[in-house]
Amino acid sequence: MKYYSKLKVKKINALFLCFVMISLLFSSVVVQANQQIYSLANDSVIRGINGSTGFTGSPNLQRAGSGDNNPRIFVNVHNGNRSIHVTSRNQAWHGFDILARPLNLRVGDTIQVNGRVARGTVMQLGGVNNAGNSWPSLTTATGNASDQFSLNLTLTQAHINASPDGFRIRTDSNATIQFHVDQIYVTRPGGTTQQPRQQQPSQQQPSPQQPSNGRNAPSEPLNFIHNWDSGNMTSQGSGTSRSSLGTATANFDLSRGTISANWTTARAGNQFNNLHGLGWRVGRHDRSIGYNLGYLNHTSGQQGMTIAGFYGWTRSPLIEYYVLDNWLNHRSTPGRRIGTFTSDGGTYEVWRDQRNGHHIEGMGPFIQLKSVRTQVRPTGQNHTITFLNHVNAWGNFGQQMGSQWDYQAYIIEGWESNGSGNATVWPN
Q1: 220 is catalytic
Q2: By the 8 A CB rule, do 139 and 222 touch?
Q3: Rg of the Cα trace of the chain?
Q4: Is 361 a catalytic residue?
Q5: Which domains does the chain have, with CATH numbers?
Q6: What gap in Å lies between CA 258 and CA 276, rounded to an integer?
Q7: Can you tell me whether residue 80 is helix, strand or coil?
Q8: Contact, 172 vs 23, CB < 8 A?
Q9: CB 151 within 8 A of CB 141
């Protein structure tokens, strides 16, 4: 009897060990999910200002300065996107405050500020106490060659103790310099979410697979590099392209699923358009992709746009389509809005336009479809695009896709802009 019990225990232990090994083999990666607790784009008061309007304050933001006109704060609006313009400054601390109390800022929260200022000007993200006095700067950034700055600060207990009421965006000197703030994000570490382990593409590229009616679509390794410059596929690999319109440099790694790109428009008004991405030679209506947009920068003021999302074409008829999750400066929504729907935890507007210009067969008319997310997704986090949801929504709004699927890719795009970005892409 004792002998039987020992055998039984050994058998149970062996089964348990096998279970643990199998679980580890197929386990998911636990990642920290950040919660966005504030963004300038979604501030209800800012969004309610129609444009070029003096700004006096909101529940989370207020003017920092002395006198009725020092400084002056304006809200600039371009295609629905809002930015803060600070001018008429005569003190280095003149700017505006992010208030801690309405946001209940905590240790571990991260404040990110992106904006524009004259090259060489040092910007500050400084603390503010309850008397309105500015504490010593907590972090600084200098306007670069493209007149852009980016301030990033993760709060410690010392920051919270020193600045109980909030944080001020200002300069360290040069009291009269004006500056612009295009984005403010405040994120907070959240709980854990499960993200699938990224599958490594095989060295041999598989043949394109046919759609599977949206059910149990197989995961297909990345097999296509998209490198487009003003109407021309400039290369099928990393490199730099130069023309009278501008210069673009892109680097791709299919095996790792990584993209990085930066570009400069030669002069204002040039229709310099460049798209850089990774994807598949033959598209699918039931594709599901994962991506992590590390960063996205737009450095040319109110000129042009910089966007990132899922992109592709169909033939018969010719349709260019986007699932646009991120944009800077403006959302690029030509044509008419034909509806809204929800997917992957967010709301999308659907826009349709009849275009005439460059397409995958040459020049001429084609249809452009865009699903534009109403709130941009945070950078530096893993996200999913369930493309089938978009195809179904477009069909519900009366727009069927072409009978032949051409390439599709996750892309970073600049149009009449100076910008940069990087991303990692993988098939779900």
Answers
A1: no
A2: no
A3: 25
A4: no
A5: 35-191 (2.60.120.260), 217-427 (2.60.120.180)
A6: 11
A7: coil
A8: no
A9: yes
